[in-house]
Structure prediction request, 267 residues.
Amino acid sequence: MKKPIGIFDSGVGGLTVYKAIRDTFPDEDLIYFGDTARVPYGPKSPNTIIQYSIQNARFLLQQGVKIIIVACNTSSSVALPHLQDITKVPVIGVIEPGSEVALQYSTTKRIGVIGTEGTIRSESYSKAIKSREPQAEVFSQACPLFVPLAEEGWQDHPVAHAIVQEYLAPLVAKDIDTLVLGCTHYPILINAIKSFIGDNVIIVDSANAIAEYLQRLIPEAQDGVKGKDIFYVSDNEDKFAMIASRILGGRLNSLQRVHLFESWFVD
Ligand code: DGL
Prediction:
C-alpha cells in the first residue's frame, strides 16, 4: 500500500502544482485539498493564514500522507515553520524551490517576483533569494487582480492583457532578466504575461520548480501501478470541478466535499 503525497492550496489554483507533480510522479498516489470555503488567502492576515494552513495540514495528516506539499505561495510564505512544528512528516513549501530555480536561470541576478499581497508583504521570496545570493536584486509586485481573472477563465481576454501590462510595467522597467510566478494561479495567465514581457525575460513557475525539487527529495514509487488521485474541497465542489477541468483539461474522477467544523477542524 502506497502512502500518498498530500497537497493543499487555498482553492483551485494549486491544481497547477498538482499537475506538475502528477506529470513527474505518475505512480504516486496524490491527495489534494483545496480550501474553497475560505479562499482567497492572499489578502488575509498572517495569523488567519497560519490557522487555516494548520487545519488543512491536519486534514491531510489524517489521510495518512507521507509528505505535505504546500502549493499555496501565501501559506508557504507565512505558515511553513508553524506547519513543520506540528508534524514529523516533511512539509515542503514552494518558496525555496522557486527561489533556487530563479537563481539558476538569472544571469544578471535582477529578479522580479509577483504574488498575492500576503506573499509580497512577507518578503519570503526576496529573503530566500538573498540568503542564497546576497548580491541579487529582487523587485516585487503584488498582482491581486490576477487570481479572479484566472478563475473567471479570462486569461486571454483583453482585460487580462491590460492588467498584466499595468502590474508588470514597473518590473520590466527595472530590467529584470527573470520573473518568478509566485502564485498558484499565475501560470494560467502565462500567455498574457509572456506577450507583455517578451522572450528575453525567463519565467520561473513555482509549480514546475517544486516538482523538480521533489524529485531530489523522494524516491519515486515506480511499481508500474498508475497513481490514484483524490480531491477534497471545503465548499463549492461544482465551481471547483469546472475550473479544474480548464486547468487539467479533463474531468476529476474523485472529488469530495469535506465539512469544516468537523473533528479535523478542532485544535
Ligand atoms: N493560492 C494562493 C497563492 O498561491 C492564491 C489564491 C489566494 O489568494 O488564496 O498565493
The longest helix spans residues 46-62. The mean pLDDT is 94. Residues 113 and 140 are 5 Å apart (CA to CA). Residues 5-93+210-257 form a domain with the Rossmann fold fold (CATH 3.40.50.1860).
